[in-house]
Specification:
The structure holds 2 protein chains of 2 kinds.
Chain A (H helix, E strand, L loop, with lengths): L12 H16 L12 E6 L5 H12 L3 E5 L13 H8 L5 E6 L4 H8 L4 E6 L5 H15 L5 E6 L6 H10 L5 E6 L8 H8 L5 E5 L11 E4 L10 H10 L4 H4 L7 E3 L20 H20 L6
Helix pairs in contact in A: 1-5, 1-10, 2-10, 3-4, 5-6, 5-10
Chain B lengths: L9 E8 L3 H7 L9 E9 L3 E9 L8 H5 L4 E6 L2 E6 L6 E3 L20 E6 L4 E4 L12
Classes of the chains: A alpha/beta, B mainly beta.
Amino acid sequence: MIRHLLDPLDLSVAEIDQLLDLADDIAANPKKYAHVCDGKKLATLFYEPSTRTRLSFETAMLNMGGSVMGFHSAATSSATKGESVADTIRVVSCFADICAMRHPKEGAPRRAAHFSKIPVINAGDGGHQHPTQTLTDLMTIHCKKGRLHDLTIGLCGDLKFGRTVHSLIKSLARYENIRFILISPEELRVPSYIIDEVLKPKNISYQEVTNLESVLPDLDILYMTRVQKERFFNEEDYVRLKDSYILTEAKLQAAKPDMYILHPLPRVNEISLDVDDDPRAAYFDQVQNGVYVRMALMMTLLGVKRPC
Amino acid sequence: MLNIDSLQTGIVIDHIEAGTSMRIYDLLHLEKLDCCVAVIKNARSTKYGRKDIIKIEGEKNVDLDVLGFIDPNITVDYIKDGHIVEKKALTLPQYIKNVITCKNPRCITTIEEGVDQVFKLCDPKTRRYRCIYCEQEYERPHC
């Protein structure tokens, strides 16, 4: 049976543990994995531009000895001729062994998976899901804190439209003793369904606040996101709120010495450049971890055995 | 009052909200049946004032699952030899296909040709459904 990764919850907690363990081993012994995918082909079907995600997938496959093919915008694909996602994946299934799909329309990878003869990985579908970013986030938290349980997680910025935030909350909610502090302007609070269908049924502790500084000392992880100007109804509110979520080295004085800062990138101004040199800044580690965890994921979906 | 003979064998779908019986007729694909089907609109109802009724003669194998989604007040009786032999309890189907459409303009169903509109039950208590593609919740029209 072909396995896909469309939603972070497609993987059980046990499977995520195995995946992160494999990714850790890849990080520690990259040469051991240099030929595990010899002869395998990855198709990157990117219907919209992407820098990190596409290059991360391609690097991951090249690191394992495989090769890559694909397109990086809808304009260079048969989508311009009106080809459906269903037909495209039927064709690509004849060429490649696995594919990563990014699409502006939500649910496109699920549609593709329905017709695919090869594993489909959702590399981001609109504002919906970005499961490999979630795996990257989980790996980084695990690497930095040594666990995915007993943590106070602060999520800050655009919690309403940020797909990475929703996926991360859903994934971390499956671990023991997770507390969420949701830091956002009123206008960008977490959607009510996340509260009603994810947090409340599991009695997970959460707090919604608008002020970052007041909760910084409580956090084990701070997950920053970009506040998007276009979401605000008036310029005045945007300017006032945007400034309150600029994380600076000075503000970080109030945080724990082992509180790590994550960000899905790209950042604009929500993390000041002076934070980059702080040992707690983990957002560039996330990028590196993204390659390892995508290697582990592709090995798993392709059924490639772990080398001795 | 219009007189419709009682069924000897078949199915009576009763207490349908007045004016919605033809939609149910379409959703149940009753046009494909060869048997006799009666659609009664605006029948008098002591409970609701007016109601619609559908009677299907002779046929037992009709997939009625979607009725639980449309209106939980609908009742379904199976008739044999002129008597009710079974009252079907309506439940919410886990999936509903091509009954409602996703309103999310960012959903793949808005552009993909030939795609079925499939919704999954996400909370039986509140009778909420989500699109299986984009997970947008279906908002029932307000009366």
